[in-house]
Write a structure and sequence with these properties.
Four copies of one chain form a homotetramer. Chain A has two domains: 160 residues, Four Helix Bundle (Hemerythrin (Met), subunit A); 241 residues, paralog of FGE (formylglycine-generating enzyme). Chain A is globular, with a radius of gyration of 22 Å. In chain A, helix 1 packs antiparallel against helix 4, helix 1 packs parallel to helix 5 and helix 7 crosses helix 8. Chain A contains nine helices and twelve strands. The first copy, chain A, is an alpha+beta fold and 433 residues long. In chain A, a hairpin with a 2-residue loop joins strand 6 and strand 7. Chains A and C meet through strand 3, helix 7, helix 8 and strand 8 of A and strand 3, helix 7, helix 8 and strand 8 of C.
Amino acid sequence: MSFVPSIKPETAPSGSRSQVLACFEETRALTDALAAPLSAEDQTIQSMPDASPAKWHRAHTSWFFETFILISKMGGHELFDKNYGYLFNSYYEAIGARHPRPERGLITRPSAEDVSKYRSHVNESVIALIENCSDDTWAEINPTLTLGIHHEQQHQELLLMDILHAFSCSPLEPAYAGTTPLPAHDAVSQAWISFPGGITQIGFKAATETEFAFDNESPQHEVILRPYRMANRQVTNREWLNFINDDGYRRAEFWLADGWSHVQNNGWNAPLYWQQDPSNQWSAFGLRGRQPLNLDAPVCHISYYEADAFAAWAGKRLPTEAEWEAAAENVPMDGNLLSSGALRPTPAASTEGLVQMVGDAWEYTQSPYVPYPGFKAATGAVGEYNGKFMSNQMVLRGGSCATPAGHIRKSYRNFFYPHQRWMFAGVRLAEDI
Amino acid sequence: MSFVPSIKPETAPSGSRSQVLACFEETRALTDALAAPLSAEDQTIQSMPDASPAKWHRAHTSWFFETFILISKMGGHELFDKNYGYLFNSYYEAIGARHPRPERGLITRPSAEDVSKYRSHVNESVIALIENCSDDTWAEINPTLTLGIHHEQQHQELLLMDILHAFSCSPLEPAYAGTTPLPAHDAVSQAWISFPGGITQIGFKAATETEFAFDNESPQHEVILRPYRMANRQVTNREWLNFINDDGYRRAEFWLADGWSHVQNNGWNAPLYWQQDPSNQWSAFGLRGRQPLNLDAPVCHISYYEADAFAAWAGKRLPTEAEWEAAAENVPMDGNLLSSGALRPTPAASTEGLVQMVGDAWEYTQSPYVPYPGFKAATGAVGEYNGKFMSNQMVLRGGSCATPAGHIRKSYRNFFYPHQRWMFAGVRLAEDI
Amino acid sequence: MSFVPSIKPETAPSGSRSQVLACFEETRALTDALAAPLSAEDQTIQSMPDASPAKWHRAHTSWFFETFILISKMGGHELFDKNYGYLFNSYYEAIGARHPRPERGLITRPSAEDVSKYRSHVNESVIALIENCSDDTWAEINPTLTLGIHHEQQHQELLLMDILHAFSCSPLEPAYAGTTPLPAHDAVSQAWISFPGGITQIGFKAATETEFAFDNESPQHEVILRPYRMANRQVTNREWLNFINDDGYRRAEFWLADGWSHVQNNGWNAPLYWQQDPSNQWSAFGLRGRQPLNLDAPVCHISYYEADAFAAWAGKRLPTEAEWEAAAENVPMDGNLLSSGALRPTPAASTEGLVQMVGDAWEYTQSPYVPYPGFKAATGAVGEYNGKFMSNQMVLRGGSCATPAGHIRKSYRNFFYPHQRWMFAGVRLAEDI
Amino acid sequence: MSFVPSIKPETAPSGSRSQVLACFEETRALTDALAAPLSAEDQTIQSMPDASPAKWHRAHTSWFFETFILISKMGGHELFDKNYGYLFNSYYEAIGARHPRPERGLITRPSAEDVSKYRSHVNESVIALIENCSDDTWAEINPTLTLGIHHEQQHQELLLMDILHAFSCSPLEPAYAGTTPLPAHDAVSQAWISFPGGITQIGFKAATETEFAFDNESPQHEVILRPYRMANRQVTNREWLNFINDDGYRRAEFWLADGWSHVQNNGWNAPLYWQQDPSNQWSAFGLRGRQPLNLDAPVCHISYYEADAFAAWAGKRLPTEAEWEAAAENVPMDGNLLSSGALRPTPAASTEGLVQMVGDAWEYTQSPYVPYPGFKAATGAVGEYNGKFMSNQMVLRGGSCATPAGHIRKSYRNFFYPHQRWMFAGVRLAEDI
């Protein structure tokens, strides 16, 4: 069965039991819906160390609720399976030993069906806990529950990234979401939007008491920005082809030294998943299978190195994360852009001002992923969530066509290594004024 | 369902259509029976480059019949799927491009179920061809059909080796064949059987016109042997423990230089699948799961390097393949030893003369795998079958508890790299007189 | 002969021909003095891809002057050897093909003696050019000449780092600078110096027209700092031992995820060059050979990962580069600290305020090496000098015992990968107020 | 200074003190003569793990005499340097720890000059011992001394192989032996010499009591040979070019599976050191620098895989080592062929019968290097000399232009891994009758 669910904006968890409950159920259901087109075999494999099997994502997100809520907060909770703690812990060193990441694809048992049972088991227990616990317990578990929901949303996007990569390794190139191409639109004309700079507030500030953000988005703090301009839209595939055709991948002058090494060692000559057929036509592999390159769509599946080199070639630069966040100030983030359920970047309709800030491809910034001034990691094992990764990675902003709508906000900091390409990442240019 | 079939001696293919047909059907059915305890997930993964997924074995053996018989000999045969040629070719360079071996575990589609359909499709076509073809065609296809049957028998053993390795990589250590241990027997006392040496014939000589052997077993030729002795039985786990306890894995003096590198680089300190628990008890993982070490059983899952080092420690040596074959002259090879369906080495009942020559573990010889004098590879793509591998490997003789009975004969030359351990390989000592 | 020259503050190049000339001669002579204790063999080897042979440093710094000044600016300059361009180019892609970095240690010819002749040849030509060129030419070459002098100073420190690493790979552990230990001093007591934060200027601002700085130190720009404290001195070996003895290298909780991988994959349990003898006494290998660990000296040869983990263990953090630079505002940088010619970190004499800001070990900051707002790389090949490396590296500030005095300034940004340890790098703690 | 000594037939060590003494002195002097064209830098580097620095060869051969004769047999011998045992042990596990082989190129000290002193020290002691020891001691040390001389002869050839490889890694491609090409000769016409086969003796049988052979050449034993033919001469460069031009390196059908992997993974398309210039002219790098390919000379610097593939392409096969030795029965091995001092393969003068059996390039056999029936390794540490390496390697027979004349005999078994190419190895074809 190959039915592709839209990724609908889920209810935001917000304090009250019934709201959190609804959001929990919706999120859990979405994960299963995303896995529905996958066979037991599809869910088992791991196509590279960076990726995880779909089955693992489904189990790990359940393990999170079991470990951080059921075991610690629900008296008498019976473990579904005592081995799962070892199998489905991801990074949390404080929680104990765990299965080596690169061997996740060797776990044939539990089966995909067993994992479904595990999910049900955890769902039932969590729902019972939400419905029946005391107000004190509720106050205690609410933040972790909310974190767990957002954690699962992250894995929803990872699941899509990972299965796309897995399918790209098969000579059959299966299509996750059917092979009907998205409707084509013309890209809007490129324009430059000016921003005045100055001192501005960056970072998450809750509008209401129950809004959620990860610890790495705090504390809110002031930064000084110089006047700058940002492109109204993301770079398109057509523009990227110009870069390729101008020998962009063969001219060291545009590249960071580390990027140039990567280009040469890996023979990069186009974004990940692109292919040129014998008659020189380009195609791109995506969740809808291999499709002719849509020249008007935002470029996707590029590394930081490529984004930076493209900017150098174009005589521009990437924005900083502070510039991006300041620019996003007045852009609506209500998730409507996702209503098409698009799983491949689409050009936004012609619009004034900034477009494609969310819902197409994550946007590279030139900012390394480091703690904000005054950053404090959360206490306990969940404190390992973000701070541990604050080296060697770059911040991306916005949100992609594979990002759950409820997971999008202006202060959100996504991060990847500068050579990684399997995420839905694109680029928007900036320049000094 | 975890039902383990006995590996019964199948009918030998021998010339007549009905006999070959029976043998074909029996062999094809056995492969499916061997895969029956495996879930779709189990059948998909590849736990190391040397191994292949169970699903792949099932498809590749079918591809062999489709490619070398149906496509070339059956007018109007419709390919089950045009992609399978690429996916399930193993080595045959002459047949065209093929999927890279180390990526066989990334093939989630076709599913295990699709492969079952493929097998049925091939079976039906082959059976129809056997039943209906002209006598001329029959004469033409009979040798390839017979080769295909023996080829599939080889993959039956590989399937068991590979799934054992795959399961050993899972923290859950699933038991392929249930967890009931085999009945224990005492090992027979070690004794030395003398052989006079002299000029002797080595290699396959068909007793009847329809007997089968691989090309690498021919031509029959004379060799000169010095007088020698061979141990009446294989080395036991008890004896191997003595080697371990005498620091066998830590004393360079016993080891070939290449072997010593392997020991150090890989931290070998016992046969593959052995484990010592905190109270120093040894166990071994096998098709019946993890079991306490049976001290009377033949040692298994050792490399050539280990076999050679053990022999040096014991003040003995390994036999040559000619010595082994000459010694096997009067040993019955009728497959009765396999009647227990044992999938783990068992000590043979006390017996005079050589025991355990077949049916427990393959036995290392000190002979590198090279062509016999006057060897000619078969013509055509199937000529790539054996000759291509005549470098860097060592010959093993006999047959293991995982070898189909019909696949056992005195002249059979099995071969592996000297560092490999995942096959059911043990050791029998020899010495000069 | 093992004579170790002091690294004296050289005349700063400053505009006038005679001043630049004096500085050029002094710098060129210092390089040769640093190489004087090294045999032809010592100068040839490359002990790891990150390092270069001493001979290569001596030739490459000459190649820089030949390529960027003599070839382009001196009519009729005869190349000393046409192969040297290929052999001794380091990174400059714009200049053409170059010998692969990891194979620099395979260049036995030209000999160390040939390289001495090359240096003389370049020296003579450059000196003649300085003395005789027209004022227009002088105006043109002065900046490149000054850059070349600073470039050579960088390689002076690299030469010392690299030979220390090379000698550490020899079982004989040769002492570069004799084996007389430095006089011991007690470390000053740790104290915390407060800084108010606020908006402050960061980056190079020339006090006079002829002062030099690299492009990566510009443009000067404003940053906002929160109030903070910095330790008055660097972390000592005694303090580092406390970290070790508290299982610092075995507790994941203190480490960045990438750092923890490094610790485990490389078996790190102490700074580079440290060793514990059978009676548990620690020693450190340095330019004066292996010496008992000086507990009062600043810790040296640690990676960013280790510095960050130590700070986490200590409940502190690393300063940002802006904090460091702001704190350094009133610290004298006149190079007097180097007057001892110390080639191993020494504790500074007891002093009020910040000590050891320069002259002992480079100090890690938590700032990734990225362009300053408005950064523009220099044009031409020398523009590849710094900007190319602005990814994946961390900024270090100050200057070490191996840094030429004239190379020290408050705005100087040194940078290394977070796993590297062979540079003279230590750590100073900071904290929020 | 680039003076190339002829490798003259040295006196064979043969029992009497004066004869062994003369041979010892001659051999020691030849090693130094071979190193004479090398600078201190040249002698220091190691261009790949398989190779060793020239300085190391010079020291290791001295260490052999010091360790196995002076230390054990000469009362009161003072070690030249106590560190040398660690530095210059090669494989002998029984003698204790040793410097890791791949790091031999990091040993800058002792210097080349120190090693010369070490050689003199050992020479003087050994000579004094020979001249002055008792007859009993003489009887004891004579075999080890003789072994040491032959051991040093092996390293003389290794020194030439290794320095050729080292120089090939330099962009300057220095010429070890000047750049004057050897006089050209036409190759003799190819012809096939028949041999009757039958039972024949193989292995070393001393004609006199004092003749020397390595343990691996014994015991002499009978083998059965089928009638066969061998080519009268080695394969020429011209013939090899035909193989290349017939796509020999691109057609899997000729290659062993392991060989084909090597071809593809390493991009082999010609013998080692061959290069094609833009006008398609081939040249080969050798001890006389880069020279245009001499089409009449024997092909050299090929791997076993290439030799085997060439034979398959030619419709022939490689001889076994027994066939080679039987064929060599009546070929003079007096070393006269080496009188030219040729360091590059030269075509032999036109001759009837087998030519080029020694003195040009080692000849591959299809025989893996395994013990002869009844082989016993020598006792003590020197017993590690040959037996340790009896796996994964192939036997080569004859002797090359770099083999000392005294080191050549019919029963000599040289051995290398099937992928190695840096030795002076060529190929002679054989076929069944």
